[in-house]
Specification:
The chain is α+β, with helices and mostly antiparallel strands and 204 residues long. It is 24% helix and 31% strand. It is built from 8 helices and 7 strands. A hairpin with a 2-residue loop joins strand 6 and strand 7 (176-184). The longest helix has 12 residues, at 25-36. The chain is globular, with a radius of gyration of 18 Å. The model has no long low-confidence stretch (mean pLDDT 86).
Length: 204
């Protein structure tokens, strides 16, 4: 498989994706805002849905992906622990989550990681004072990217576009580093719409 397909072009600012986003101006602005939001995706989705759940696809040792080892500053031959999940809002798959960290830091720096199960990762990352976060990076993943193939396998009945927008950032805790990647699935677009505002009834 060509190297260009296996590796996405990660950029430092969501504005760089403007030309790649939909021509709909409002949709483009909402998408950029969601991509750049530094808060917890879990909390954001819970506010927009009646029910939220996590579908665990896998959590096991694996090999670092071609476009991950430089960001994590580890060897491309490194063995890592991977966690792939689908975040569901009102039963619809809205975000594919991918987490990767070195095998040696699981017990020492991320003791909660092996016990997560279907608990969202953000429930620990965003409420731990020892956790720091690097700036967010952004990319459009093409159909040949490994994460796109995993999404297609996880959602075989879904009609997926040829590319999807993604964001990722590094989290640090003590000496350990993990990378979290969020890939925006088509159903997320409905949740990006502005929340209805409450209009008070005028008293007469």
């Amino acid at each position: 498989m060509p190297q260009a397909v296996r590796k996405a072009r990660w950029m430092a600012h969501p504005q760089a994706l403007a030309a790649l986003l939909a021509t709909d101006g409002d949709l483009m602005r909402r998408t950029r805002a969601w991509l750049a939001d530094p808060g917890s995706m879990t909390l954001k989705l819970k506010k927009r849905t009646d029910s939220f759940s996590v579908r665990l696809l896998r959590q096991r040792p694996g090999r670092i992906l071609a476009d991950e080892h430089e960001a994590l500053r580890i060897s491309p031959r490194s063995r890592v622990v991977e966690r792939d999940v689908i975040l569901l809002g009102d039963g619809q798959p809205v975000v594919f989550g991918h987490t990767v960290l070195s095998t040696g830091s699981v017990k020492s720096d991320w003791p909660f990681f092996s016990k997560l199960g279907t608990t969202p990762l953000g429930a620990n990352l965003f409420f731990d004072p020892l956790v720091g976060r690097s700036p967010i990076q952004y990319a459009r993943l093409s159909a040949g990217h490994p994460l796109m193939r995993r999404i297609a396998q996880a959602l075989p009945e879904s009609e997926l576009p040829t590319s999807l927008l993604a964001r990722r950032s590094l989290f640090t805790r003590r000496g350990g580093v993990l990378m979290v990647t969020d890939v925006f699935l088509p159903a997320l677009e409905a949740l990006m719409r502005p929340l209805p505002t409450h209009v008070p009834i005028e008293k007469r």
